[in-house]
Every structure is written in structure tokens, then in C-alpha cells.
Design goal:
331 residues; alpha+beta; nine-stranded mixed beta sheet; three-stranded antiparallel beta sheet; 14 strands; 23% helix; globular
Length: 331
């Protein structure tokens, strides 16, 4: 349907009891729920002429009105001089070591200071396969996940790399700190993922979701946490974060999936002060894209690149070793 300022939706008897964002998405299914949630939070929509929250429960006769349409997304990106840690580069592609906190591309209110704008400043020409807002990106990392990211400079290489990604011949290996010792030193997490029913930005293990498979090996077990390696067989949004949270080992610092400060209530009292020191190091998830292996699209040769652990993860491991040494002395 065509949307204009003043467009109004009326809650019927059948709609009563639904959440506002779900009600809207059923009527505007060409828009993502995350986009609609942003419209709500930005005040573009009113419920009975008042601002409301996405989880507001509707009653029969409620009116939801579009006050104004959002500003259109820019059609082009301006290059920006953003420092980049380039691990590898040639005429076809480049691999960047992305720091925690850097957003990959514009969206959700972020218009400037993104990785792709830094890439455009660095090399000017990037592939157009991902669209005008995501030039060059063969895959993405969450804002607060650090590590290796692959970008293509032309469409030919991008398409060949994307095929490897689809055929699961690109190897992506992550290192992470998760809460609690892992009983199994290696294994596979095979749980389907879909959108979270209460929060469209998050993901959850759901019956009927998309296949998601993560292999893992424990590198070190500590009393309080485990340092492990995770290898993606599939690459769903938030896959590693959701999988380990689902089995009771959320990633340290991962607030949306239960690994933030709230986790301290689950820690044995004797370890709680140590856990509090650890969580101070990780306001966001302790997850790092450590190794990337792929076939070069032009030479046909395998290429493996690695990124060392960020300083905060090294500091976290040092703390965990210190805690263990202290407990041994007490014993």
C-alpha cells in the first residue's frame, strides 16, 4: 500500500492483544520489523495520538497513525578518512582487521564513520554486488565483534567469493570467552535460528528456523570461564552468540544474550568478585574473528590470514589465569 503522512491503521477485534510492532508488520510486510521499530522509536508513528513503545499491547479500536515518512536513505556514500588495519590487499580484494565498535555499513541511524566509508576513501573502487550502502562487503561482523573481514574491489571477485560463502568453502574461525567451564572439550552446536519473538533485532533458537551449525574446541578451561575456538559451518546473524547462550555458556560481556553484568547473579559467591573484575573488561561480547581461509578468486590458491587477539581478550585470559592461581594458593 502507498504510505502518506496521516495514514491510519485501526485495531480490529481480531487484532486486540497483539503487540504494536507485530500488528504493524502484518500490514506493512514489505518493511522489516527492525525498520518499523525504528519508526516507532523515532516518533514517526502515534498510537491514539500519543508516542508508544514497540511492545505496547493493542485494544480494539486503537488508532495507529503515521505522522511523517522517514527521510530517504542516501543513494551514495561519501568516503571518509577512517584508519584501517589492512591485513592483506591486492587488485581484487582486501582483508581488514576490524576493531570492536566499528559499524560495517550505514543503517539504524548510523550515517557516518562506518567501515565501508573508510574503504571507499582507501581504494575508491569497490564491488557493487551488495548494493550502494554495502559496497565491497562479502560478509559482515557485528559492531562489537572484532577481527577479519573480507571485501571485494570488483563485482567479478565478489560473486566468486560469495559463491564460496554459499557453498561453505570459506573457513571462518572465531575465538571467544564464554562463562563457565565447558564439560565437552569439543563438539557441534546444531540449533535452528530465527528472529526473537519479542525483539526483532535479536535472534533465538526456534523450531522451523534456518539451519545453523557451529563447531567448537576448548582451548583453555578455567574455573570461571572457558577460552574456545568456534568454527562456522553456516553464517547466521548472531549465530555463535545465540548458540553458546542457548547451551548455558553465554559469551562474556554479551548483554543481549545473557553474558553481561546480569550473569553475576548466577556465579558462585566465592567467584563473584572475580567475575565482576572480568566483566569490567568486556562491556560488550568477548568475540574475535581470528582466522579466515578462502580461495583467491583469480589465482585459485588458498589464502589463510590470522588476526591476533585484541588486548582486552588477552587481559581477560590473564585475569582468569590469575584467579586460578589465587584459588590454588588458598587450597
Amino acid at each position: 500500500m502507498e504510505l502518506n503522512a496521516g495514514t491510519t491503521f485501526i485495531c480490529t477485534e481480531q487484532d486486540a492483544g497483539k503487540r504494536a510492532d507485530i500488528f504493524l508488520h502484518e500490514r506493512l510486510d514489505t518493511l522489516s520489523r527492525s525498520a518499523l521499530v525504528k519508526w516507532i522509536s523515532d516518533g514517526l508513528l502515534l498510537l491514539n495520538d500519543k508516542p508508544f513503545k514497540k511492545n505496547a499491547v493493542l485494544n480494539e479500536g486503537d488508532r495507529m497513525t503515521l505522522v511523517t515518512l522517514p527521510e530517504p536513505e542516501p543513494e551514495t556514500l561519501e568516503p571518509e578518512d577512517i584508519p584501517l588495519d589492512i591485513v592483506y590487499e591486492d587488485e581484487e580484494l582486501l582483508v581488514i582487521n576490524k576493531p570492536k565498535g566499528l559499524i560495517c555499513h550505514p543503517g539504524h541511524g548510523a550515517r557516518h564513520g562506518t567501515l565501508v566509508q573508510g574503504l571507499l576513501h582507501h581504494c575508491r573502487e569497490l564491488s557493487s554486488v551488495g548494493g550502494p550502502m554495502r559496497p565491497g562487503l562479502v560478509h559482515r561482523l557485528d559492531k562489537d565483534t572484532s577481527g577479519l573481514l573480507l571485501a571485494a574491489k570488483n563485482d567479478r571477485s565478489h560473486l566468486l567469493l560469495a559463491r564460496q560463502l554459499e557453498e561453505r568453502t570459506i573457513s571462518r574461525v572465531y575465538h571467544a570467552l564464554v562463562w563457565r567451564e565447558m564439560g565437552d572439550l569439543e563438539g557441534t552446536l546444531d540449533f535452528p535460528l530465527g528472529r526473537h519473538l519479542q525483539d526483532p533485532v535479536r535472534r533465538a533458537v526456534r523450531t522451523g528456523g534456518k539451519t545453523a551449525i557451529t563447531h567448537f574446541s576448548v582451548l583453555e578451561n578455567y574455573e570461571l570461564a572457558a577460552y574456545l575456538e568456534a568454527r562456522l559451518q553456516t553464517g547466521r546473524t548472531h549465530q555463535i552468540r545465540v548458540h553458546f547462550s542457548h547451551v548455558g555458556h553465554p559469551i562474556v560481556g554479551d548483554v543481549p544474550y545473557g553474558g553481561g553484568r546480569d550473569y553475576l547473579t548466577k556465579v558462585t559467591p566465592i567467584w563473584r568478585p572475580h567475575a565482576a573484575r572480568l566483566i569490567k573488561l568486556f562491556p560488550t561480547q568477548a568475540l574475535h574473528a581470528h582466522r579466515l581461509t578462502f580461495i583467491h578468486p583469480m589465482t585459485g590458491q588458498p589464502l589463510t590470514l590470522e588476526s591476533p587477539l585484541p588486548e582486552e581478550m588477552q587481559a581477560g585470559i590473564a585475569l582468569l589465569k590469575e584467579f586460578g592461581a589465587q584459588q590454588k594458593k588458598k587450597a
